[in-house]
Amino acid sequence: MIKLGYAETDITPKMPMQLVGFNRKDNTSRGVLKPLYAQVAVWESKDRCCLITIDSIGFKRELADELRSKVRSILKVSSDKVMLCFSHCHSAPNIDDSEEYFKMVCENIVIAVQRAEADMHLVLVGWDNAEVTIGVNRRENNTKLDQRAGILKVCGLDKEERKLLLVRVTAHCNVLKRDNYLISPDYFGNIRELLQEKFGCPVMVVQGSAGNIAPKYFCSAETPIDARGEQYIRSDTALEDMAAAVYEKLSQRIALIEVADKSVIDMYSREMSLYADVPSLAVAENIAEEAKRYCGIDGTAWLEEIETLRNAGVYRQKETVEVQYFAIGRWCICGVPYELMVEFALEAMEQLKNQFFYVNGYTNGCLSYFPTEDEYDRGGYEVYWSILIYYKYFNRVFPFERDSASKLIEFIIGNAPITCLL
Q1: What would the mean pLDDT of 312-331 be, rounded to a whole number?
Q2: CA distances from 267 to 138, 324, 332, 365, 415 (A)
Q3: DSSP bridge pairs for 42
Q4: CA-CA distances (angstroms) from residue 291 to 90, 298, 301, 366, 386?
Q5: By the 8 A CB rule, do 43 and 123 touch?
Q6: Average per-residue pLDDT in the chain?
Q7: 3, 122 contact by CB (below 8 A)
Q8: Per 3-state DSSP, what percentage of the chain is helix, strand, and coil (rounded to 5)?
């Protein structure tokens, strides 16, 4: 039998904070549009594991590991039994900028884990997909999308009372653009509110492989680079529009999902190594010039870091990659701490022939974009330019080597739960 304990906690800061996600000189917040939340689901069948969703762009690895360690100690499990799913919200505080805020978030989540653990109930689960259109591929000449809204439905033993809905979607959490300075969970908050109202139970939302997927609706007086074209819809109610599009399709599926006692629950991690070059100064200077010309990004500090590394004889950087799985029967979330492009999710689903296998980014951290080989060749913001700003959070100055995408997909498939292969 499966047990579930659920709790949530408010993680909205009480004072102005530095926001993160847009390249602008002033990132200081100017109020709160809607509160931020962390939600905790403690699961138990043979073993115990914990899924936590957090309204945040994502932590660097050291901070994510620290929080997972705190949760692990409470539940008396290994760290790979704790999965952090970040929404990748661009209207939330920069956790790396405030030790005090990070401490508050950890303390609140720890209390929520304790509450969830103390309130475990027997449940039944079922799953399905609904097809939703809330994203646009923002890479030139790329139309690939993952339109699966994955639904995990959790009910009491009477099969009537809903205990939880877990919804997985794929679109960048930046409906609000760079002219917004209000703290907000972006459209994830609106999905939660609308679905909780309609279905009468808590709703957790997790982000898919959205590295190259922008939201279809946006709210801004500007027209940013990821909202140019007739496929994007400017709207004063863009947050509500995104949530409504999800609800419209989910409302046709929720009641039809049959729930049962699915006895096989598992959460585990596997590790692999990937490598990134430290480019020559000539190559780096060309990239910095392009980033300045097309995006107004100042790459001075990045160039200095590359020069420092090369002077120290460092020409290649190694990174250990954690791939984590959370599976219930054929349904499975597979997460890695990167902004994966959508092709990772589509390729894994197709090779496994399992529409309920979801590859997600922003899991246990957020450590740079991860392009496919084709997109690597095209370059641009997601491949090179963004790292000029955020390299200091990644302990890496360049994208992974070109064939890393194929290696990661092969590793994901090779280590997938046996129940996902049936």
Answers
A1: 97
A2: 33, 7, 9, 17, 12
A3: 5, 50
A4: 20, 8, 13, 21, 8
A5: no
A6: 96
A7: yes
A8: 35, 30, 40
**Sheet holding 357-360: strands in order across?**
265-277, 316-328, 331-335, 357-360
Amino acid identity at 355: Q
The predicted structure's pLDDT at residue 320: 97
Taking each helix axis from N to C end, the angle separating 187-199 and 238-250, rounded to the nearest 10 degrees, works out to: 40
- Non-local CB neighbours of 233 within 8 Å, separated by 6+ positions: 216, 217, 218, 241
Number of helical (H) and strand (E) elements in the chain, helices listed first: 10, 18
Interaxial angle between packed helices 343-352 and 404-414, expressed in degrees from 0 to 180 and rounded to the nearest 10: 40
CB within 8 Å of 82: residues ≥ 6 apart: 49, 50, 52, 68, 71, 72, 75
How far apart are alpha carbons 70 and 79 in whole angstroms? 9
Give residue 383's identity as a one-letter amino acid code: V
Would you tell me how many other CB atoms lie within 10 Å of the CB of residue 207? 27
Q: What is the pTM of this model?
A: 0.96
State the average pLDDT over residues 362-378. Answer: 95
Q: Would you say residue 262 has pLDDT above 80? A: no
Please name the amino acid found at residue 112: A
Which tokens go with 260? 């049962």
Own/partner long-range contacts of 158-163 (Cβ < 8 Å, ≥24 apart): 159/124, 159/259, 162/199, 162/200, 162/201, 163/4, 163/6, 163/121, 163/123, 163/201, 163/202
